[in-house]
Known about the structure:
heterodimer; A: Rossmann fold; Rossmann fold; 11 helices; 37% helix; globular; B: Rossmann fold; five-stranded parallel beta sheet; 10 helices
Amino acid sequence: MTTMTYAAAIREALAEELERDDEVFLLGEDIGESGGVFGVTKGLFERFGPDRVLDTPISEEALVGAGVGASLLGGRPVVEIMFSDFAALAMDMIANQAAKTHYMTGGRLTVPLTLRLVTGTAGATAAQHSQSLEAWFAHVPGLKCVAPSTPADAKGLLKSAIRDPDPVCFFEHKLLYNSKGDVDDPVEPLPFGRSRVPREGSDVTVVAYLKTVDEALAAADLLEPEGVSLEVLDPRTLVPFDRAALRASLEKTGRLVVAHEAPSRGGFGAEIAAIAAEECWEFLQGPIVRVCGANTPMPYAPELENAVIPDAARIADAARSLIETRVA
Amino acid sequence: MTGSHPATEAFLDLYRSLVRIRRFEERASELRLAGFIPGFLHPSIGQEAVAVGACAALGPGDVITSTHRGHGHMLARGADPRRMYAELFARQHGYNRAKGGSLHMIDTELGFLGANGIVGGGIPLATGAALQLKRSRSQAVAVSFFGDGATNEGAFHESLNLASLWSLPVVYVCENNLYGEFTRQDKHQTVKDVAVRADSYAMPGVVVDGNDVLAVRRAMEEAATRARSGQGPTLLEAKTYRHRGHYEGDMGAYRPHDEVSEWLARDPIALFGRRLIEEHGVTQDELELVASEVERELDEAASFAESSPHPLPEEALEDVYQDPYDGAALR
């Protein structure tokens, strides 16, 4: 067991996969000699060389397209999108090409591509460098979506993503990069579709992922002295989503709060709420409450940013309101 | 044809390939009207010499990305017309098991990485394929076909920049048929020759008569040799013309009459046939024999397609993922 940061865990997963399989290579802007704007790929260029760690021009469509094209011939590219907002520049390659190739070709071609999408706010990064766009990708059949909240999950899930035969969107939250956690040594690839319960509780289930898991855990701490017991469920992967775990948790608590940083409207939380409503309704003792980003672009000012993003206090408020709700 | 000189045989093979594409698409148009083909068709009739000339310069292991007008490239690469018609008919024995249709057809064994429904969409893919060929130290090249319209897409410019920067083994073949969908070239770009855009990316830009199959082959051989020897990409512009509209059903009314007749008079198949007779001692009978053999092949292909079963409704949920996690990724 080693304590390391989320960024280091991602770096180790990349290094171990580069070591394991010659077909794995990295593509991205400034990921090589300079080690990436967040330092995630630091040292990999020196260790694996320019044939495995490729700096690209600022050219998102070409670099994702290069990844897709290489994967059609057996490569296992891992493409970094420096800010997930920039994926908008590569959306044809992601949504029309990578996602659909396996299907359109009747299963004859595969695109084993991993897209690392650097996501969420980093503090005053404003509207074009802060978005949480996972719902865009989760909506497109053919893509898998991974959203780890801890170093251990990041490492295990990135290994699985790289080995997965399908295109995988791997979301990394900027504000998690320096967070620390214990990571097994060695780490086995973590299968997709298996959630984690970082905190067990009996009154309210909070489903959260990425950075919002920390907020949910903090909300649980806030509520504990009040005698309210929160269960925090981190799905870890959005596609596939662990329905069984959601059901098991709701059977216990009967109350659901869904929390994420992305705007609530059409966010992945809406999908989670729909799953609960469709498949777990018999357990529900009250309405499903979403505690999500406001339906605004991300503002610049820190106090405005704080007003838009859900925090522990808002999650706790939502849980209290549910406890107070009495169903006739 | 027995006793023909091997060089003559090779010419007749090119001729056969041209005729096969022409007739495949003419018959597809009829089959569509007869109700056998449910989807889009974008015929390349008139442009056959680009596909045949370019593919004649390629070898095994080379890979191709194509366009919405891709039947010709695929046939020229050696694809099986039976499975192509079966795909157009949306039947199980189609190349894509009835999941793709005309716009997405592939033949992985031939390195045909697919037609593409997105204008310019295949260009970054070929660039990436070339990256993988280079990474694996293969001698093969990637070829990307696209039209003049695609050269206004960011995908074109970004890809040429990347391929040039990394000296990738790729040949970009612009089939300039003078129209991007319904819009004439002079109304969608200010350059006359797309090939000049190569200058921006420090690669050769070559203009070739796209209705001359041998000229296309020669230009492609040079570009492919350059790519194979590590000297990087080439932008090859083949000037040609589609005889029909953008898709079956488009009458092409936006095109001046005299322009159409001028190009019809330069039909690539008629030109090549005449040349074979005048310069290579081929007889009219030999050309007619090729045409009738192609007809028989396509008769058989159409019957094959017609007898292929329709897909079952449950197949709709297959092939979304190679690993659907026991169906969890589909819910």
